[in-house]
Amino acid sequence: MNSVTLSQLRAHSLLPLVLTLCVTLFALGGSELTVILRFDRVALLHEGQLWRLFTGHLVHLGWSHTGLNIAGLALIWALVGQRFDNRQWSAIITILMLGISLGLLIFNPTLAWYVGLSGVLHGMLTAGTIADIRSGDKSAWVLLILIAAKLAWEQTAGALPGSEAAAGGAVIVDAHFYGGVLGLVLGGLFKPKAV
Question: Is the pLDDT of residue 6 over 90?
Fold first, then answer.
């Protein structure tokens, strides 16, 4: 294992800190800002508000939803954050945001609006797990199987028990699925770092 300097650790932590700061600042903006930034089918298709393809993933239903997603980001970063550099992760996150939003537009025509980072988080975890597997970590197969089982459960039985109460609203499980599928592809396309 390579030794990590303090400056490398700071650089590596920069991306999740920036993402957490954005999510927190948008949450401080309240529901009015959320309405302006959320994924909104009518605003995207009829008003050309394309920023919503990205910003919809950075706003949330409320503070509990925000906190859950920030905690999820921290956990994912601890598990697989070292597998890609910040430039790669930035590209992966951007592609996930765009891909999940397009998936919702195309395959969920009755979905009027969406908020939350959870679809992106599922994609990040899957991409990082694939990178772990590609780097020879056989134990990562267990995590990949658990991710697949969760996504299969959600597609057949709906949101995990208690998740809607914890988030403060409906869980759009298809966003998790689109993120997971994209994560599989991205984890295979981006070259993992040696750790």
Answer: no
